[in-house]
Amino acid sequence: MAAIELRRLRAFVTVVEEGNITRAAERLFIQQPPLTRLLQGLEDELEVKLLQRLPRGVRVTEAGKVLFDEARALLARAEHLTEAVRRAARGEQGHIAIGFTSSAALHPFVPNLLRRYRDILPGIATQLEEAGSGELMDALVDQRLDVAFVRSPASGIPGLTVEPVLSEPMIAALPVGHRLAVESPAPLPLDALAHEAFILYRRPAGQGLYDAILAACHRAGFSPRIVQEAPRLPATLSLVGAGLGLSIVPASMRRLSGDGIVYRAIAADAQLSAPLYLALRSNQTSAMVERFRQLVAETALADYSA
Question: pTM value?
Answer without folding.
Answer: 0.69
